[in-house]
Automatic annotation (TrEMBL):
One example GO MF annotation: GTP binding
Subcellular localization, as worded in the UniProt entry: Cytoplasm
UniProt-recorded name of the protein: HBS1-like protein
Organism field: Armadillidium nasatum
Pfam families recorded: GTP-eEF1A_C, GTP_EFTU
Length: 441
């Protein structure tokens, strides 16, 4: 193939917005939800109970764990059952299908929660309203602040805050107000306006105000706002970028019929139809789409946000890798060995310095990255520069850095492609920072 010829993606354009409306107008949009909050805030119990009320965790499973935890003398009858059951669950709200990212409840949940946050469209922040519980999560050492900074840094523009365990303080409105006031003040400094945040008094243990409006008069007397489920339903759906150039990130490769190949993955932006010619990046080879399949979706089309399998021909199987991209040949994804990025550093023990090496992760892409330069340190909440060219970055700091990759990676700037500009830096399997690409050099 001669890639210097302007290769056309398709011979004839169609009115894709009309087609989308026709095929998907009545299909609920899928939102990826991450649940964050201090350890023991009640995340597992809350989500477990919600799934249970939605009929997703079977009664029998619940009963079994109830018996087991009684034997163990454990207060939370749900946490164990749920921990096992929760991973990648979906449930329905009135206008959306919610896909729950990662399983809360494990002690090692935090790193996966962070991975979850980087892929999430929306977030619930769970806080513990019990006496001293909120304070433990909110003050020094607590994760409430860190997690709110993280969701904000990763571009989640609205939050639902579950003010949980309010049963333990007899549904005290005063306690609820006290917590909301503290959080409002703090969340504003992080960049959430009051109108971006909904506070929902609830109990993961009793199930109060999760799916059905409050029954307990102690809460009913003063609260008439949304249930947790309604609040989730009200979170904004990210724009489906069907009118943008194609970016299909490959997460699975296997042999199809005859000489064709199958690639699974997520179409981040644009739309694909049968017969399209796509450019494989970073290789530059051209593939032709012979078939498009996804569960519950009409064959022949794929739109931004879909997880689909493409049947492609014309490509040498040996050049296909997980982490590669299929793109519009006229506007392929850039590849680079150097980027500038804004990062949030997690609870690390060894400071990040010039020359530090990390595993660079995003989507299905993996690579080695080296810190080329520490450009500036930023104020964690306001994002203002507090120091130019810092010598080291310690835990919980924010910064602008330059990274250099061992081999070229396909990336986009966060501002242009939200979906493709967020990444994670890891070390020995531990996530040390999350960030977004601000510049491709
Ligand atoms: P996680 O670490 O955030 O996932 O928290 P868990 O769901 O494991 O809950 C931590 C503890 O809080 C457990 O002992 C639960 O029984 C208790 N708990 C969770 N939700 C509630 C609640 O709504 N009310 C009360 N009173 N206790 C709760």
């Amino acid at each position: 193939q001669d890639h210097y010829l302007p290769l056309r993606l398709r011979d004839k354009e169609i009115d894709i917005n009309k087609k989308y409306e026709e095929l998907r107008g009545s299909v609920k949009s899928i939102l990826n939800l991450v649940v964050v909050g201090h350890v023991d805030a009640g995340k597992s119990t809350l989500m477990g109970h919600l799934l249970y009320l939605k009929g997703i965790v079977a009664q029998r499973t619940m009963h079994k764990y109830e018996q087991e935890s009684k034997k163990l003398g454990k207060q939370s009858f749900m946490s164990r059952g749920v921990t096992v059951d929760v991973a990648h669950r979906t449930f329905e709200t009135s206008s959306k299908t919610i896909s729950l990212l990662d399983a809360p409840g494990h002690r090692d949940f935090i790193p996966s929660m962070i991975t979850g946050a980087a892929r999430a469209d929306v977030a619930i922040l769970v806080v513990d309203a019990s006496t001293g519980g909120f304070e433990a999560g909110f003050e020094t050492g607590g994760q409430t602040r860190e997690h709110a900074i993280l969701t904000r840094s990763l571009g989640l523009s609205e939050l639902a805050v579950a003010v949980n365990k309010l049963d333990s303080v007899d549904w005290s409105q005063e306690r609820f107000k006290e917590i909301v006031t503290s959080l409002k003040h703090f969340l504003k400094t992080v960049g959430y306006r009051d109108s971006d945040v909904t506070y929902i008094p609830c109990s993961g243990l009793t199930g109060e105000n999760l799916v059905e409006p409050p029954r307990d008069t102690a809460l009913k007397n003063w609260y008439s706002g949304p249930t947790l489920l309604e609040a989730i339903d009200n979170l904004p759906v990210p724009e489906r970028a069907i009118n943008r150039p194609i970016r299909f990130c490959i997460s699975d490769v296997y042999k199809g019929q005859g000489s064709s190949m199958c690639v699974g993955g997520r179409l981040e932006t644009g739309y694909i139809q049968n017969g399209d010619r796509l450019m494989l990046m970073p290789q530059g080879d051209i593939a032709t789409v012979k078939g498009i399949q996804a569960e519950n979706l009409e064959p022949g089309y794929s739109f931004a946000g879909d997880h689909v399998t493409l049947n492609i021909s014309g490509i040498d199987p040996t050049v296909l890798h997980v982490g590669d991209f299929l793109c519009d040949p006229q506007e392929p994804i850039p590849q680079t060995t150097r980027i500038q990025a804004r990062i949030v550093v997690f609870n690390i023990t060894v400071p990040i310095i010039k020359g530090s090496q990390f595993d660079f992760h995003y989507q299905s892409v993996n690579g080695m990255a080296r810190v080329k330069k520490l450009v500036s340190q930023l104020h964690k909440s306001t994002g203002q520069i507090i120091k130019n060219r810092p010598r080291a970055l310690v835990k919980n700091s924010s910064a602008v850095i330059e990274l250099e990759f061992e081999r070229p990676l396909c990336l986009e700037v966060y501002k242009n492609y939200k979906e493709l500009g967020r990444f994670m830096l890891r070390n020995n399997g531990v996530t040390v920072a999350a960030g977004m690409v601000t510049q491709i050099n």
